[in-house]
């Protein structure tokens, strides 16, 4: 059995808030209970939004909270060739296809279908599923357009991906209270032809996360319930790429007083704001229901 290995994997698109602190402290507590280790991973593939000061801020905030992580800290932006190799493996098996549609074209296609009274299925986030326009293009047309340098994403060919599996994907869930495991069916089909490779970088959140969890030997993923539905897609990618699958626990989210998710864009106080007004790390630990681990 591999040593229990967990990860806290923030995206440096802003400063950490109490929701991140809760997730990081819960990861630390579970790692400790399991006699394992907690790694830090910086998920910085969104080059348009990532800023070096946010990375520095995350490191400072976690240090302030009293969390220490083994070096080296993995930064996804340093591993684009690895993700591109995974993309190429999926493409070689025709499990993904290039999609040249702009957001506007997709919205227009969906509006046309809606006007005809066609059903508009939606993914678990409520976004209408991609109507599959580019899945129907010939390989020759797709190649010619790529060779002309037309911007494109790569989408899962969901029907082909599901056909490629010998058995339906499953997810192992564990309870942090007693370690109990249960295996549940995953339902990746509800994501439709999801984007697996973005336009600007040779990966996506979904592709990077399954590659990295495998490369880093992650045995237990502890993250917020907002990512629970995405695990279906991760289970599918793990099967298609032959990657080991960690066990998962999706924790309840820390919410603002109005019940909304915490987010910088909604004006949630960051850990740095709390620190600046005299809140201590011990206050944060206690406020989130954690006994000090030290
Ligand atoms: N980077 C993601 C976030 O900050 C978390 C990814 C994960 O834990 O799988 O929301």
Kindly provide the name of the CATH class of the largest domain: Alpha Beta
- Strand proportion, as a percent range, falls in 5-15%
| CATH architecture level-2 label of the largest domain | 3-Layer(aba) Sandwich
- Per DSSP E runs of 2 or more residues, the count of β-strands stands at 10
Structural class: alpha/beta
Lateral strand order in the biggest sheet? 1-2-3
Uncertain segments are none
N/C terminus separation: 27 Å
Largest sheet: 3 strands, parallel
InterPro entries: aa-tRNA-synth_I_CS (IPR001412), Glu/Gln-tRNA-synth (IPR000924), Glu/Gln-tRNA-synth_Ib_cat-dom (IPR020058), GluQ/Sye (IPR049940), Rossmann-like_a/b/a_fold (IPR014729)
EC number: 6.1.1.-
Keywords: Aminoacyl-tRNA synthetase, ATP-binding, Ligase, Metal-binding, Nucleotide-binding, Protein biosynthesis, Zinc
Pfam families: tRNA-synt_1c (PF00749)
